[in-house]
Design a protein that fits this description.
The protein is mostly helical and about 140 residues long. Helix content is about 75%, strand content about 0%.
């Protein structure tokens, strides 16, 4: 049996870039249960939280666009391609570690909570593996 499309490094990198966007609906729609009452924060703390969240969102989505738009160039290799892939592998492995060490307590028990938790962890680890694999094999 053959794959419906060729599984190339370029296709994997494109997929990893697209996976940056899969967290967007969750971030925008997820009710922040158990994370703390933001109304208890001072106006300055709320503004700092908004700015940090916006900055992180901008970086994650921007890197997704960069990877998707340049998947072919990244797959061809070079120092910049390898460095970016190593950085993204480190970034997403850190985020996966935070998922396990910090954010696990915020997911509700039950089937729905476990599906969300392990689904997000699978996405984070998939991106980590693709970027690390790419960094190790490109020249």
């Amino acid at each position: 049996m053959t794959a419906p499309f060729p599984v190339t490094l370029q296709a994997l990198l494109f997929m990893a870039g697209a996976l940056h966007f899969i967290q967007l609906p969750a971030l925008l729609l997820y009710k922040k249960e158990g994370v703390g009452d933001v109304s208890a924060l001072s106006p300055m703390e709320r503004d700092v939280k908004k700015a940090m969240t916006g900055g992180i969102l901008l970086v994650v989505l921007g890197l997704g666009v960069v990877v998707m738009a340049n998947a072919g160039t990244l797959a061809q290799g070079g120092r910049l391609a390898r460095s970016l892939c190593f950085f993204l592998a480190l970034f997403w492995s850190f985020r996966a570690a935070m998922q396990v060490a910090v954010f696990s307590k915020y997911f509700k028990n039950g089937l729905r909570g476990r599906v969300k938790y392990y689904g997000l962890l699978a996405i984070l680890l998939t991106k980590t593996c693709i970027y690390l694999g790419a960094a190790l094999i490109i020249s």
